[in-house]
Each structure stands twice: as C-alpha cells, then as structure tokens.
Amino acid sequence: MNVRLISGKYGGRIIKAPNTNRTHPMSERIRNAMFNSLGGVVQGARVLDAFAGTGAVGFEALSRGAASVDFIERDRVAARVLRENHRTLGSPENVAIITTTVHNWLETQNGGEYDLIFCDPPYNDEQLSTVSRLLGLLKPNALMILSHTGRGEVPIHLDNIVVVDNRSYGTAHLTFFRREAP
User: What is the CATH number of domain 2-179?
Assistant: First the structure.
C-alpha cells in the first residue's frame, strides 16, 4: 500500500505503508482537510507525530513548512517503513524517529516543547491516559489534533486545555485541543 503526500515541498511524492493491519494511515481526504484547517500554523512549527505509523501526517507537516518533526512509533515493522520513507524523501535533517511506545517516551520528556502534536493512537486501544499526558508537551496556544473513533468530544479534561474544534469524516473523527496561555 502506498500513501501520497498532498502539498508543499513533497507534494505528489509517494511513501509506503506497512502491509499489515497494525497501522491505519489517515486517508488523503482527511489529511488534506486537517491541514487546510490548520492554515499557517504548520509553518515553522516544532511538531510531534505520536503513534506515527507511516509518518504521512508528520511528513505532510514537513512538506508544508514545519521546522522539525519527532516521530514516535512502537511497531518495528511500521518504524522500518517510516525510516524508509524518511530516506525516500531525501533524509531531511530536521527529523527524529524514535522506536518505543509513546508512554515510555513520555517518561523522558518535560512540558511545553511542541507547537503542534498529531496523535493517532490505534483505534482498538486509544490510550486516553497517555494521550492526556501528551497535552502537557504543548507550548502555550499550541494545538494537538487527536484522531479517534466515535462522535464528539473525547473525555479528556485538563486545566488550560480547551477543545476548539471537532470534525467527523465518516468513521474517523478529529478533535482539536489548544493549550491556553496561563
């Protein structure tokens, strides 16, 4: 299976997806709608692609002008494909690929580091406690977009975190969180 990057520096380039059912690459239609709704937020952003899978979302962010992307992926097969996709795109230097669980990686992190977080956990294991902890890595006024099943808001309620948008695309749903400035 292949995934096409949509716009920007890598627009039209094809990257690979693992030939397994352990990842669910975000469709081109949803990625395009999501990035169009973000507008200029991506330009110059420090981005985290948690539960990265193919890396399509993070590479799309790089393509559209993100300053850097950190990819976190625990599945070894998906991580190997992610590294191959990195090489296919010319091995941009502003990329880190970390092969571990998001939960374990969070144990080594401090708060307030990212301008934009993309979070697409496995639909059969949404890991809401881990997802909630990711929100602590947002800079003030930064965004996290969570891809999930079900309609409406995800039950995450933290101080200084507000839901600013909910979008549905068939069975896929995106919830946009913003860390408010203290």
Answer: 3.40.50.150
Do the Cβ atoms of 8 and 45 come closer than 8 Å? Answer: no
User: What are the structure tokens assigned to 179, written together?
Assistant: 């860390």
d(CA 174, CA 181): 23
Query: How many other C-beta atoms are found inside a 10 Å radius of the C-beta of residue 140?
Result: 11
Which residue in the block uniquely carries the two structure tokens 């695309």?
A: 169
Q: What share of the chain is helix, strand, coil (3-state, %, to 5)?
A: 30, 30, 40
Token pair of 138, please?
Answer: 């947002």
Concatenate the DSSP letters of all residues of 139-157 into one string.
EEEEEEEEEESSSS--S--
What distance in Å separates the CA atoms of residue 134 and residue 48, rounded to the nearest whole number?
Answer: 9
Q: What angle do CA 124, 130, 132 make, to 5 degrees?
A: 110
- CA–CA gap between residue 87 and residue 15 (Å, rounded): 10
CA distance 7 to 9: 7
**Token pair in block for residue 11:** 């627009």
Per-domain boundaries in the chain = 2-179
pLDDT in tens, 39-80: 899 999 999 999 999 999 999 999 999 999 999 999 999 999
